[in-house]
Queue: 2 jobs
Job 1
Amino acid sequence: MRSRPLYGRLVPRQGSSHFIVADGEGGEAVAALLTAAPDLKSTTHIVYIPGTNGTDLTTMVAGLGAQVFHAAPSYASASQRIRKVLGDAHMGLQLYAAGTEGLIGQVQRDAIAAGLPHDALQTEQRGSLARRVQCVHCKGITENVTLDPFVCSHCGLNLFVRDHYSRRLAAFQGVCIDAEDPGEVPASEERFK
Amino acid sequence: MSLDDAFKDPFFRDESFFGDYTYRNTPHAVNRFPFPFPEDDYMYSVNMEPHVSGRPGSIFEHCFDVDEHYVSEMRDRARVLEQDPLRCQSLPHMTLAGWDLLELIMEKFSEDYPQWFSLTKDGNKWHWINRPLGIDQKFTFLDESTLPMGPFEYITRQAQGDFTLQDQRDDNLWIEAGMVTSQADWSLDFDIGMNFHEWHAPVPLAHEMGIFDRALKFLLALQHGAPVRRFNWTMTVDPLLDTSPENYHKWGPSKTTMTPETIGKRQHLRVELQTLIRLPRSNAIVFPIRCYLISLDDLVTKPKWARRFHRVIKTVPDELATYKGFIRNKPMILDYLAKYDDGAPTSPGWWPED
């Protein structure tokens, strides 16, 4: 899909400070990064969020020895902190995001909004392929969508996930699947595990 | 904006694109309809040509075509914007491009249709009169505080067709403003901020054919004063301009209620005349997407169009018919059109009588 971003591997870069946001299995990518470049630890700030699929590496990531470690229950709960750090960024800040596509997309969106160049962010996708999906009808975003079709958590329409991704919204597009034949909804499949 | 006096000029039809659907084409409008198929089959192509003045009376005569549906289309736009203000958005850095577009439309309208529009300038003090819509506006060019809304929204509430503005940077085009109330199922609110390949992502087949790579390369080199145009097309049940994804759950069911008895009146060929114009100050590209609708009953009054349209629909791949949203009614459309195709050869080009 042309609008979907490509993800890489986190590699250590020279910088005055390092800000890492990760969720779920993304914690393993953080561990790999700091193991490869232990000298980063003294200038690193980590925000870690357990995965909604149950993967919780909080204890492991907390033990990596970063200068600042913050455990957050959800992206929404951490977003004020993340935006503040991005807004305060000085030249030389290195930014990393690892974990689900939904998390990476939100960090990218917030980084762009803070005026950071889009290539200032390194990304690594790990773990669940669950998607953030915006309902094109009511504009509400449903987090951690694994089924297709699924029910919009805001307006209740039956949505299929179109292969179309917005970086500005950090979300895929959900479109009503039974618009032409209300009630005729195919069985959901687990497409984004 | 007052529409009260608008229909005093009998040229403009008082009609609706919603609810009771009183939209019709007069014989004059049918004669000049932009039938988009120069050959008997259809496949994607970049198909761009210079947007130069064409045959007098045709939709190509002027840079912007103002036709008999103008006033009613502007009323429909106002209705859609009232329901959903997100259909007009402009990122903050696009204001200058909005002024570029305002200037272009005011100048072209007043030059090409002096009976309806006038623009007088005293330095930056401008005076704009739009008689069909009953607008008389004095303002200072490039001073936003002197207009009732931003320049982009102000002028695109007075011009038929959807408009998007593309900023050019990093060897790409970024869709960063739009007035979108008569779209063929795409969402400005979702796509705003995307680059050229991103916003075309859902289109099938064309990426693999290299269509978008070639089109982008071509557009990045677009020069001021040398606009280009192309056609696109789809099918719409009832003359509904606002076939938005936002409202798809409301208009989608209309596709299931067409019958062989009503198809001639209800099924419309929807043609977009897409033009691309480089703007002088901002270096942005404006993309007007002008929508023309014709019922099958009106289309088949031109024997050449009837024969050719039957052949085009017959050869459209199912993947494309699905994307364009008429796969479920394709058999019924073909049954209707087959009656008008005697197998006779057609002449090249799209003009009905050539």
Job 2
Amino acid sequence: MQASDRFNINSQLEHLQAKYVGTGHADLNRFEWAVNIQRDSYASYIGHYPMLSYFALAENESIGRERYNFMQKMLLPCGLPPDREEE
Amino acid sequence: MDNTDAEIAKTQEERRKMEEKASLTSVTFDADLYGGAGSDKFEGYALSIPVNEDEEEQEEGRDVVRRMASFTGPRAVDIPKVSEDDEEVGFRRPQKITDREDEYRRRRLKRIISPERHDPFASGEKTPDASVRTYADVMKEQALDREKEETLRAISKKKEEEKSKRQEAPHAAAPAPATKRRNRWDQSQDDGSSNGTAKKPKITSASSSDWDLPDSTPGVGRWDATPTPGRVGDATPSISRRNRWDETPTPGRLADADATPAGAVTPGATPSGMTWDATPKIAGMATPTPKRQRSRWDETPASMGSATPLPGAATPAAAFTPGLTPVGGVDLATPTPGAINLRGNITPEQFNLLRWERDIEERNRPLTDEELDALFPQEGYSILDPPASYVPIRTPARKLLATPTPMGTPLYAIPEENRGQHYDVPKEAPGGLPFMKPEDYQYFGALLNEEEEEQLSPEEQKERKIMKLLLKVKNGTPPQRKTALRQLTDKACEFGAGPLFNRILPLLMQPTLEDQERHLLVKVIDRVLYKLDELVRPFVHKILVVIEPLLIDEDYYARVEGREIISNLSKAAGLASMIAAMRPDIDNIDEYVRNTTARAFSVVASALGIPALLPFLKAVCQSKKSWQARHTGIKIVQQIAILMGCAVLPHLRSLVEIIENGLNDENQKVRTITALSLAALAEAAAPYGIESFDSVLKPLWKGIRSHRGKVLAAFLKAIGFIIPLMDAMYASYYTKEVMIILIREFQSPDEEMKKIVLKVVKQCVSTEGVEADYIRSDILPEFFKHFWVRRMALDRRNYKQLVETTVEITNKVGVADIVGRVVEDLKDESEPYRRMVMETIEKVLANLGASDIDPRLEELLIDGILYAFQEQTSDDANVMLNGFGAVVNALGERVKAYLPQICGTIKWRLNNKSAKVRQQAADLISRIAIVMKQCREEQLMGHLGVVLYEYLGEEYPEVLGSILGALKAIVNVIGMTKMTPPIKDLLPRLTPILKNRHEKVQENCIDLVGRIADRGAEFVPAREWMRICFELLEMLKAHKKGIRRATVNTFGYIAKAIGPQDVLATLLNNLKVQERQNRVCTTVAIAIVAETCSPFTVLPALMNEYRVPELNVQNGVLKSLSFLFEYIGEMGKDYIYAVTPLLEDALMDRDLVHRQTAASAVKHMALGVAGLGCEDALVHLLNFVWPNIFETSPHVINAVMEAIEGMRVALGAATILNYCLQGLFHPARKVREVYWKIYNSLYIGSQDSLVAAYPILEDEENNIFSRPELMMFV
């Protein structure tokens, strides 16, 4: 990278992206990415009412219960993080 | 007409023009960009931040320097301007900060960079070392200082009294008040005139000179800094004009009585400070004229006069005693007046003088111990220690010119044999260091002798490293500067706060510093601060001393910079340290220090939050110890309000409560500043927060009855800002209360008071509760009697304020009342006054229309504006023109009866020999064209059109531009068919004018041509249009964007009129030119032609052109395509398959720019055809774009990323995600980084739609990665 690039939009782009929750970076591991995917999915299910009612129907739950469940699952969607190997 | 006569007239005219060139240019140039040369370019800005609202306070008790009750000129006037004429031609040359500073701001140089202080946080409970300055020490010093000041004041007062008593006898006849003016001219004048009689008292005062010095020192500045038009008027005008020649002190004129240090001739004058320039002409000379407005010429270091060895003086040492030697015994305690005049501004000539002076001083340097040992006999003498109280002088202003003596600056660590090395040609800076300016030697001189680098201790080597880096930052080339700055930042902790700041801060006090240098050094401090964090604590005060002056700099950016540093500093050091550092300055004896400290405190408040500072402020504002502390505390509140605006609202009540006691303070200054602070708070809080001011309403309204003068003005100001916050009912009541006082003050002669009264009237009148009848009956008569007078038009600020207030009143009472009162004045004999009337009428009519105006008034009005328009001699701001336009437009059809008369005037003036008059006449046509159309005066307009057409041979570009503008206005309203002269005659006449390079001409001409091409192209043969096309190509070079834009649009119209083929051929040919701007504009023009004539008429030729094996042409074609697809949007779906092969080729080209431009074409294409079923082609193109994601060149990667974003929109996020997945977990980090970047923008762009497309992940033993919900099926 040249000195002149340091402050242009491209370098800022990454900084800008990093401000959003759910964006990734080169050191992201499988688990972290999967957590993001799961949360995005649950957020999307909750956000689209037809989806939510579809799942409620399939699981034979009330819609409110289903929404609550999804929200709860967003806490630790993939279980506990694996121990970091080295480091 | 006789040819010769005309020629002579023209030449004369030209010469006259040349003389007033400045005022001419101001009309043409975009006033925002270039600034009117005639008017002040800072017009509309606050010329100076009001540093001085309480400026005179430190002068109380010093009769000598008492100032006038009011001052009329804006302070900024006497800021020395570097001659602006030179700068018009090119860039501004770097300006020294001191050059534009006024005397008040220059006081910063007198501040001492205080030694670092004890940091109680770092050392914990430990008792500080005795050698470290603690808070208690500083406070003690302050108290001592104050005591000293007071004693000195008392002494000088006493002396004054004695003196005046003694002088009363011989001067019984002389009127006492006349001699009591505030400057020391008069003081020494007395001395001079009573030379013979009052010899005795003078000798006493001379002998006690060093006692007088501290007192008179600040005065030096004040009397020549204050603009004193009044006094200049007293003196004979011819003498009062600045005459450079009798002010330049040249060393050659040593024998001149004026230039001699008065010590030799009139010993009495010595104590009065700046000897040579303050000395009045001796008794023999007729009038000591107060001619000295400050000019740059008196900035020559004063030392020359005083350091000159006089032929008559006994010893050389005696000759320069009063001035400069730092070892001079007498003046050690106080800054000598001589040092104050050192304003930097070193010209080569002066540098020579300096060198010469140093040479002299070098020979007269104090003897070293060794030399003394050699001189004196060994026995019979004992060496005494210097007294314990002895402190060497640290005032930086003195340091600049002071001979570096062994005891003074570090510079003289240079060994003996090197002495004198830099008195001649500047030595080559070693080791790739940047050039050193003469002023820099004092700071960086040590870098010049590199030989003993190895022998230095690590500490010294570190210092040297810092110096090198700083020199590079200060004087180096941009790359040097950049690396040096980075190194300083990175190694800040390693260097340590002490060594760093000890080097940086003195540099900032350098009197010859330039803006750019200061900016860089401040940047260094900022970076270093960030790194050092809490390590800066001991240096907080040091830093503040150099940064605070930035807060009152006239340059906006300097102020912002200063704020940023102080805010960072307070975040790094913490509130406690900041308060500890600044607390002692709050009641400093020097008003300058208190002022800057108050401002700094407000910055701290904005950085750390107002609540954090509230307890402290409360304590300070209620200080019993000194009124200065209370004053500063209240001022801090004011500054907080100014700085933070509506952010004070949550704390408004507490802030008001803190300061409200100040309204009843025993000290007048405190009362004044309290009222001003309330005004600032109310202004910041508007329109909310009236309930917080409840407690101060009573004292304020009571106050206006009991106070007079400045305090009253401040109280009125506060009221003016509080009333608009009130409910209608209260506002009405309180307005009536205050109006009595306001009306009384209408007749105040004080300019400041006038402005405030006008402002308050405006504020009161604009509130809801005030009725029109009340205004009409109670305010208007007095208002017009006292304010609508000629004198008010002379001062710009009065003028503006009066117009604003009158407009505000009109909003309440209606147009007829006000216009009826002033309309007669349009025929007043004073032009500025007429202009003021015109501006008021313009604003009023533009606001409220003319329906109020009855036929009689209408007649008067038209008569008046015609008179004023014709009689104007100079109208740089177009007031008359705008006024005329506004009146005519407001009256609309009612002007019909007067139009023949107006047009007659215009026609007559179009024929005037003054270019200015012709220009105004033409401009007027463009203003009233629409109204003429409304009045159905087409015939008249046609006639004017013909007249204008005849004047197209005009030589002055300004006038020609206006004539073209007028033609354009006429064509616009009467249409192409009815236009006379007919378009087919008009356009060929315009073609040669297109060649004119003047911006105004170009702009108006291209607008007119474009208009004709758009609406009336059929009146002109195609050949003429082609000719114009060629001319237009040249116009693409124009600097002004508006012209280029008009040009490319015109290409579009022409192409539409005569078909695209020929125009396109011309344009494609133009792609071969070298100049980039020209090519870019051409590509835009091609795209516009394609848009207006449908792409299929253009694309074949365009794509064919891509086969030309020339980089510029191919890139031009690609760029045209990019613009083309941008413009045609979804129409692109028909062309995408046609251009795909071309883009394929471009995206595979070796040349970066090809790929970049093709990528941006792809982006526009994708965005245009999204959702129109072109996915197959787009995926195909994406496959060509994708490999470019690893490009590193910023423009290319930018274009590629945007193309991918475009594809995301067109193809959907899932497709792009599939492209991404291959690289997100690639083993190579570089690859992963790029892919994650793409993924992130994809994710941010369409997070939701990705949910369905994420890959299926297998569960692991502890973790669930799968998404079973998506498998559900009913």
